[in-house]
Specification:
Length: about 150
C-alpha cells in the first residue's frame, strides 16, 4: 500500500518514527515534509497530503503536528478528505470501520512513539465496514458539495 505522510516541526520526530516503522513493514511511503525541526506552518503540509489523497495518488495519508488538531483542520478543507485526530486505538479502528477515514492525524506532543505505531497499525489494517455507514458517508458528501 502506498501511503503519503507529512508533518510540521511539532510532529517531525514522531513522523520520522512512524515512517521508519512503515518502511520496515514494507509500506511504500512518500514523505511530503517537513524534513527538519525548523519552524514551518502546518496548513501547508496538511493541504499537500490531503490533495494527494483526494486526487487518488494515495489511498491513505498520515499527518502529524503538535496536537494533530491544526493539521487535520487544514486537511479537512480539501474536498473528499475525512481526516481524524486519534490518540488511542479504539478510535483509530472506529474511524475506519464507520467513517472510512482517509487521513490519520496524530499529535507529536500528545502520543508517544510506541502508541503511535499501534494506532497506525490498527488504522491501516481496519477496513471500512460499509452497509449503513456508506449511507452516512453519502450524507457527508452532500453537505460537502453544498458548500
Amino acid at each position: 500500500m502506498k501511503i503519503v505522510i507529512g508533518s510540521d516541526h511539532g510532529g517531525y520526530l514522531l513522523k520520522e518514527h512512524i515512517k521508519k516503522y512503515l518502511e520496515e513493514n514494507n509500506y511504500d511511503i512518500e514523505d511530503y515534509g517537513t524534513h527538519s525541526l525548523e519552524s514551518v506552518d502546518y496548513p501547508e503540509f496538511g493541504q499537500r497530503v490531503a490533495e494527494a489523497v483526494a486526487q487518488g495518488k494515495y489511498k491513505k495519508g498520515i499527518l502529524v503536528c503538535g496536537t494533530g488538531l491544526g493539521i487535520s483542520i487544514a486537511a479537512n478543507k480539501v474536498k473528499g478528505i475525512r481526516a481524524v485526530v486519534v490518540s488511542e486505538s479504539f478510535s483509530a479502528k472506529m474511524s475506519r470501520l464507520h467513517n472510512d477515514a482517509n487521513i490519520l492525524a496524530l499529535g507529536g506532543r500528545v502520543v508517544g512513539p510506541d502508541l503511535a505505531v499501534e494506532i497506525v497499525d490498527v488504522w491501516l489494517n481496519t477496513p471500512f465496514e460499509g452497509g449503513r455507514h456508506a449511507k452516512r458517508l453519502e450524507k457527508i458528501r452532500e453537505i460537502e458539495n453544498k458548500y
